[in-house]
Design goal:
Helix content is about 65%, strand content about 10%. By secondary structure, the protein is an alpha/beta fold. Helix 3 runs antiparallel to helix 5, helix 5 packs parallel to helix 14 and helix 20 runs parallel beside helix 21. The longest helix is centred in the N-terminal third of the chain and has 51 residues.
Length: about 600
Amino acid sequence: MNYFTKVLKYGLDYTYYGVLNIVFNILYAIFSALAFVSFIPMLDVLFKQTKEVYIEPEYSGISKIREYLEDYFNYYISRQLETDISSTLILVVGIVIFFFLMKNLFNYLALYNITFVKNGLLKNLRGKLYSKVISMPISYFLNKKKGDLMSRITADILEIQTSYLSILELMIREPLTILFTLIVMFTISPELTLFVIIFIPISGFIISIIGKKLRKDSKEVQQQQSNFLSMIDETISGQKVIKSFLSESYFNQKFNRINEMLYKFSNKVINRKNLAGPFSEFMGILVIGVLLWFGGKMVLINETISGTTFIVFMGLAYNILTPAKNLSKSFYSIKKGNAAAERVFEIIEFKLDNDSNRDQLLEIFNDKIEFNNVDFSYGQSKILDKISFTIKKGESVALVGSSGSGKTTIANLLNGFYNSDSGSISIDGMEISSITRESLYKNISIVTQESILFNDTIMNNIRIGDLDSTDEDIINAAKEANAHEFILEQSKKYETNIGDYGGKLSGGQKQRLTIARAMLKSPSILILDEATSSLDSESEKKIQDAIDKLMLDKTSLIIAHKFSTIKKCDKIILIDKGRIIAEGTHDELINSNSSYKNMNELQM
């Protein structure tokens, strides 16, 4: 129940509707019990079993209120039967209709209000989960499959909805229905009521034993669903590789293994859940059989209860069996929902890095960036080893070296995406780890090798650079990035939707939009990670000119393989296997470092 209570906390904003639901459920439970009791006078009239009372009873205190009301009703009916049987029938039938009308009216009002609680709770839970995912550090996503995260946000939330929230309406209604019905039954026959009271806990105990393994099996199903989604995502994203390497059969086999596991675990969970209904129904029939035997003796042999009253008592017993059956099934729902909730709250309760130490504001970058003996590793693999260098304000510094040498990692550390293992990185003398994230990212902008765009309009994709910018600002940024011309050629110009990951655009067009986005932000520190690698020669020249303008009066860290793009940099740092092996201007390195000279000649 621990996870269940955690989920319920997300519905506190809708307490008003919850209170109304409880009130209407109380009224529903009362009228549900009275609706069956209202059959007694009708059956008495039909079978001529009405107790004849011709002297108006006198009220003698609250302790005998039931006898007084019963005698007064019989007194009224007795008088009516003497004068007009037809109107008496209308009266007793009208009483039955009234009680059932009120019962169903209050049931609807209770369900109406619980709907706001359930949907509101789900809305808050989804919002919290998404907010937590978007605030996760970059390192978190390195260790998680995208399909697993998607499964938790979609399939697991849906499971919580069906397993947990579906029983919210039962939590108050069914126990109250059982309680008020038992009270009425007890006033009719304490002996018969004892059988029903004994049946409910026995049934619940046996069902809880049957459902012990349900949570474990449900968790396995959730994990297999995660693997399933990951497999689908990888298959769709990697179609070109799969087809070009003739790997369809391998991926088919891999998918079939996952699909088979999902099939087996799903069968186990559903079959165990399906057992709750038939079992609780059998237990219900068993108790009805005992009641018929014991009650039949009371009616026919002992004559301690009338036949019409016994019929109504059986109706009341049935009125208990349905909510008891629903409650027993809800134990399965909670067990099944626990598995999904555990996976969801694993994300929600993930402890983020303590930002309380980030209390320094980087208002404006004024002096220099310093890397001092920085080490960094991915797991057991060391990526950076004692990296030290300085970037003064206004300088453009390029990082060159073979793939995997650590260039992009340096950019990620400067962005604050990761924390170094040792050493320090500072901006204007302030450790990056002590600078507030908001002020850090206001001063830094990055253009990556991979063009990261969103399924939205061109206008909105550029606007991410500065959410407060005007349309005119966005158009100017696009012109600087040499993107304005191809944007005007689109069907809806700046309002054109570019599809998933900008799939409707060419590689060069996508890259120009990301550059326009960086231009709109106009940061004081600019990071260019292979920013022109996706461009053709003509586009590269245009973008390089735009980048040169953007870099004016800004501090730039440039990662590039193409030496033609870094010749004008103030300093070039040559990195090999995580170590700095040389630094200087292009001309200095050509003359002093053979490795740099060879790399330059190979490109030429």
